Structure formats: structure tokens, C-alpha cells
Amino acid sequence: MYAQHWGLVDIPFQSTIDQRWFYEGPSHEEAVARLLFIVEQHRRLGVLVGEAGTGKSMLLSVLKRAVQRAQGQVVNVNVAGRSGEEVVWELAAGLRLSPRPDDPPRTLWRKIEEVLLGNQLAHVQTVLVFDHFEWADRECQKAIARLVHLNTQTPTWTTIVVAVREKALQESCDLFRHLIDLTIEAPPFSNDESRDYVISLLSRAGRRDPLFTDSALDRLHALSGGVPRELNRLCDMSLLAAMSAGAVAVTADIVGSFAAEESGDKSFDRQSILSNA
Length: 277
What we know:
GO terms for molecular function: ATP hydrolysis activity. This is ORC1/DEAH AAA+ ATPase domain-containing protein. By secondary structure, the chain is α/β, with parallel strands linked by helices. It folds into two domains: 160 residues, P-loop containing nucleotide triphosphate hydrolases (Rossmann fold), CATH 3.40.50; 87 residues, Helicase, Ruva Protein, domain 3, CATH 1.10.8. The protein has eleven helices and five strands. A five-stranded parallel sheet has the order 2-3-4-1-5, with helices on both faces. The longest helix has 18 residues. The protein is elongated. The two termini are 20 Å apart.
């Protein structure tokens, strides 16, 4: 919509799992290193924690690509809205077991155990990823606990990674929390990371000259709390508004006008801000 106006070859601020826009700042670099550590060191269970929008799913996507490049096998299951039986079926499908819709759980479990044992004997690294685990029902939690307890050999060639919102960690993972080898944090960006994130993504999209003023970058971080998903939303709306107003750059007032409008703060005159941009 605004890409051509700002000299961009693509829209960078989209809340999608597209590794073209992955920003590996210090905090996320550390998270990736820890995810790779539990795989390379043959640990059984790692938990990736972070609040909504901090980039957990993107980090899992980066992990998946790294394992595949090393000739490992990765299955990524989104447990949101799925029952325990559905998660087991998705896992079987991800392991290329060609499950049928009417296969009973006991049949699927037998096949899953067989392929995991085969990979263990063949030294094929297998990573089972379960995303959005804060939405897991009790049966789903039991299924993951069963997988963890199946995985008793040392060194193990099956690593399980669960991604969950930090506030839901204790409740969602209580059946296997005592077996967690490593808890990995996906924190919000620092102010410097937020600034570099915005500049880096715009550069990848073809923009070399500054587009957000320094004060606008600071305002973006303050309003978003450094959460990538919220940064994307604010950048996207601000670029659209600045284009509509004929502004040559995105200022702090343009960024702030949206937050004020959403919060019902009438002290901000959005039309006046945009007309003077």
C-alpha cells in the first residue's frame, strides 16, 4: 500500500513468520544459541517462554531451519485449539507416518514410538516443537508428558521444545516441569534493539535513508514495550499515516497520535499533527 511511496521493495512490518524479516539482536541471538544448545547437546526438554508477540514462533522457525540444514527431522505442532488426540495426529503426520482420520490414538502412539526409536538407533536428530502451549488442554499436556517420559535414553536423539507464555508456564507445564533441562527466554527488545530492528527491516526492504526520526524511534519503543508484534503494528500504521499526510518522515507526534487515539486521549489532535507533519 505504501511501499512504492517510501521506496520499499516490500512491506517489512508484517506479523508473519517470514525469516526474511528475522532480526537477531542480542536478546534473540542468545535465545537461538540456547535452543541450538539443547539440540546439539542431546537434551530432552527445553521450554521457550515469553509474553505474547515477543517472537517465540519466529525463533522456533529459525530453529527448524537450522536442524533441517543439519539433516535432522523437525515437527512443529501448533497446539492452539487442538485436543490431545488432534495433537498426536498432527505429530504422526509431521513424522510422515501418513495417519488416517480414523486411526485410534493407540495406533498412532505405537507408530510414533517406533519412528522415534528408529531415529534414536540411526542417530537422526529429531526435534518435536509444540507452539502456543498456553492453549493446551489437559489431554494435550498429558500427551507431551508421555513423549518426555518415552525419551529416557542417554544421549537422546529426540529433543522436545515447548513454547509458552511466561505467565502460563507453571499451569501449562506442571506435568513435566520437573523434567525441563533448560528454560529459554524470548524477552522484549531493549530500546537500542527496537531502534536497530526498525532500521534493519527498512534497509532490507530497500530503504537506505532514515525514515523515522530519532524521537519517533524512541516513541515506538516506549509505546510498544519492545514487543516485536506491537512494533510492527505501530510502524505499519505510522508509515501509512505519514504517507497520507504527505510527510517526508515519520515523527514522534505521528507515532504518538495513534496510541492516543486508541486510548481515548483527546489531548492529541491527530488531524492537526498530520497536517503539520
